[in-house]
Amino acid sequence: MIEKIKLDLFKLKSKKDLESIYHFFKKSTSKWFNNNQSPKDEFFYIRKCPLCNSDTSKEAFKIDGFSYHECSYCNSLYTKPHLRDGVLDALYSDGTYQVYQDNLVKKGKEIRKGVLEERKFFQIKKFINKNSDPALLDIGCGSGTFLDVCKQNGWNVEGVDPSPTVSQTVLENYNIKVHQGDFNKIKFNKTFDIITLWGVLEHISDPIATIKKAKELLNNDGMVIFEVPSADCFISEYLKKNNFSPTRYIESGRHNIFFSKKVISQFAEKFNLKIEYLETNGLDIQTILLEEFENETTDKIINIQDTLNDLLLGDHYRVFMRK
Fold first, then answer.
1. What is the pTM of this model?
2. Rounded distance, CA 98 to CA 142, Å?
3. Averaged over 196-209, what is the pLDDT?
4. Is residue 163 part of a domain?
């Protein structure tokens, strides 16, 4: 398997940017709450677990007005009450989410494309059993850097993104077609060998429907690959015991579902998919500390995180499933 990357959070995102974007989104989502921090009914509703449909849960922790519940059946975490359909979409359509792209994602573009996106490509390549160039669809393609890495390596690529600005930008920058809109509502006239969802499923109201449609669009022996925040990680356990608001991982209002290893296995069984590989990639320790140290201490922190990742305790799961 491709060697894991030991990543320094602050080379990807500065402490100042992490804190400023956290406060920006906290202010942007404040309209969803009453003065006493209780959620407004016009923005929230009570729902069953979005991953297994169980109606039994218990509160695990509360952050910035959002209550995070642990499902008693699948062990995943989700916001309860949950944002109504369309509320989160407004953050993407009114330009709010673009601030995140500009302040965090674009500033780390060199590391993302030259290191992280390259690793994604080579990871996937090891699982592809095909002589000709594979067809890949990236859902929630954002800036298009991952698609471009795959394209440069000869793959046939297309993207999906809800933002019309993204669609135009990716076409102009990389000459790659992006289907603009809701993946679950778009009609495709072809199938794919690989479908990827990097940091997408935690944002949407019906991840099950998305996985189901992705499978339907896969060729035989094709792969669906997704990365999602973990409900089983070190920082989630830390949050259950210590009250604080992390500047990443939770991302209140945007990350509304956190996936357990148990529910990932349930997905595989439900859709008759085989889990080929699963790993965690996390930045739990630096997210908790949110302080920069001298090189020797930083190296130790990164090595601790590497051990947590080996134990599948990092804050994001990366999952490879084959049809």
1. 0.93
2. 10
3. 94
4. yes
